[in-house]
Every structure is written in C-alpha cells, then in structure tokens.
Amino acid sequence: SPVQNENIFRPLIRSYGRRFDLSSYAAFEEARKQEAAAPTKAPPNTGARWIEPRTIAGLRALDLRTVQIQLDTPDLGLIHYLASPVAAVVPREEVERLSERFGRNPIGAGPFVLKEWIRGFCLRLERNPHYFRPDRPYLDAIEIQLNVDLTTQAMMMRNGDIDFQRSIPDPIFLNLTKDDRRKAVIETSRGTTLIYVSLNCELPPFTNRLVRQAMNYAVNKSAIVKKLLNRAVPAQGPLPMNVTGFNPSLPEYDYDPTKAKALLAQAGYQSGFDSALWVPRENPTFMQVALSTAQDLQAVGVTLQLKEVSYSILTEAIQRRRTVPMALCDWAATIDDPKDTLDYLLNGDRICDEACPNTAFYTNALVQQHFRKAAVEADAAARIRLYQQIEQALVNDAPWIFICHRNTEVIRQPWLKGFRLRRTWPTTRLGAVWIDR
User: Fold this and answer.
1) Which end of the chain is more exposed for a tag (fewer CB within 10 A), N or C?
2) Rounded Cα gap, residues 267 and 265, in angstroms
3) What's the pTM value of the predicted model, to 2 decimals?
C-alpha cells in the first residue's frame, strides 16, 4: 500500500512501502521527525541522518542476496507483502548515486529491464538476462504506449497493431460481447476493485450508526451494477471478493427505501438532511455511480451536492480529519490477505489528523480489540475467522456505503498466449506470456 503519513522519509529511503511493526521502527520514525523539525542542524549538503537511531534494527542486509526482517510482533500477512511490488529492496548505491533521479531510472530483479522511456509517449522494456529463471521471460521486449485515447486503442486492437488493451470503454465492451467471434479476447477477473462511499463518522449525521445503515438500505446496488453493464458485482461488505477470507454468506443490505426512511426517522432525521459527496472527476464510472447514489438517496430525503474534484485533491482531503463528509472511493487489494484491506482502511488505531488511511475515521472499541488480536494470531485459520468477525461488525456499523465490486477486464489478441489476470494489484504480469501467430 502506498506510504501516506511518512512522506518526509521518502527522500531518505526511496521506498513507497508501508511499514510493519519492524523492530526499532518507532524510535527511527521519531528521530526522523526530530530531524525534519530542525533541518539546519543536519550535516551540510549530505542529507544524512544525524539523530540516533540512524538505521532500523529490524532490517539487516546479511549479504548481497539476503535481507533479514525482524518484527516486534508476529504477522502472517508479511509473507504476502514480501511478494508484492511495494516490498522491493532498493539498491543503496543507486539511490545515493542518482538521488532525485532514482525514480526516473528504475532498477530491479524482474523479468524485464527498462531500455527506453520517452516521457508521455512510450516505454520499451527488454528481456533481463540476469533474471533468476533462465527460461523466462519468453518475450524479447515489450513496448507500452502512453497517453493513447481509448477509441484509438480500440482501433489499434481491431487492426492488430497492439497485443492487449487494459481499459475497455462501455461502447466497445458492448460491441465485443455482442460479437461471438470476439468474446474470447476479453479476459475478466471478477470483483477485484471495490467501489464505496466513505462516510465520515466524526461528522454529523454520520456519527449516528442508524443514519449510516439507512444510507446503505437506500442505495439500489443491483441497479447501479446494471448501469455499469454488469461489469461489477453488488458489494456485501468491505472485503474485495477476490481476497482470501471473503465471506459470500455475509449479511447484506437489500434495497429497501422504506426501511431507510424508518431508520432516518428513528435517528431524528424524519425530514432527511443535506450533505456533499466528493467525486473524482477523472473516471466516468465514478460519475455514473455518484448520480445513481444521489438519486436513490434523494428518494429517502437525503439531498447530495456532488463536488467533482481531481483524484489527487480528493485523496489529500479525505485523509484530513473532519473535512469531507462523504467521498466516492475505490480500492484494489495489493495482496491476497484480508488485513491489507480491513486493517489499513478501517482500523481505528490508524486514525490521525492528517494523511489518515482510515478515511471514514471509524472506530469501535470492540472491533479494535479484534484487530489487535488478529494482527498477532499465528494460526492461519483462526486469523481468517477473526477478520471475518471484524468484517461482519464493520457491515453492521456501516462506515461506508458498500456499492459494488468492479471487475478487471482487458482485451487481448488471440495470438497472445499464457496471459492471465491476477486476483490482486497489479493484475497484469507479462513474464510468462508469448506470441504465437
């Protein structure tokens, strides 16, 4: 998961990974805050750390190929994170040599290496001769075209000029699904991305659980999915349906406007109320969902002002305490583990004034106890059961309007073999594909 509240440390470590409970990390974090508060005391022109501890005791390079990680508490989720891109080990000598240019000169041990990057136009990746699997990748090179509009991409697909397309506009999707000869080129991974409305539990009326429950009963999720051409599945709760621990028997909120009105009246809002729903403007899907949500809520007396903002502005604002009452958000799990979603997004222990990942600012003392117990549970099956109990409590408390799980879909040419979508982000990896014309 991306770093949120540790941006001041990025220039030092060049890492975008979120920490676990690494040994000595708390002391390291405090030392970096002290350095940031008094930058003039630092050694001139070095950017060096100057307050102890200068390193994290829980991370040690034993040799050129071995990293030792020590946690203060056990965490079964770690093994999943180590297989994700955010856990990549960055080479210190390259960080120091390139400084701010390091992000523009990526280096890694994956199947491909960056050969050329023409900003805003294309990337060319070539086979990594040092890849740990000598038989992979099968491809000699990959070219990624940037900033090509979706209509042009579709035309290039029809002409055979590209091998696969990541985004499929609705009109093109409809044409493909109606043409039996072309259906095979659509690859689908169901329910990978959750779309939800975050309700700020620190701002009235969303401090009242009855109001939050009413909001869920008021929204016709099946109708929204139909408007999205059934390229999604109605959501039962916060956990993406492709993640281990997803509970298909989880109680869900049926579409029931009458019950929604009754709950609002019970909460003291017989006449409804007004609020603002922040919506990222970049994705047309979000506006479709927002308009349908607003229409459904209007029917039970809740009037929404839709506030369109850029995704970057929305991301910053919703993480600031008592700022955004409602926000339309999405989430794709980065690892196949329920902690990645539930703990990161809805654990009350993560609430802070700025850069807060728990954008609903939701907390519940009993749920927090379960979160803490699950975090250190060493029995895998018992751990999953704990997270399912947590999810059931979250659904009951309704800090979000659980709308739908969006599918991930790509178009591929029939000659592109070995291609498959992963269940978690990033959904596309190309180390095992080949071309057979």
Assistant:
1) C
2) 5
3) 0.85
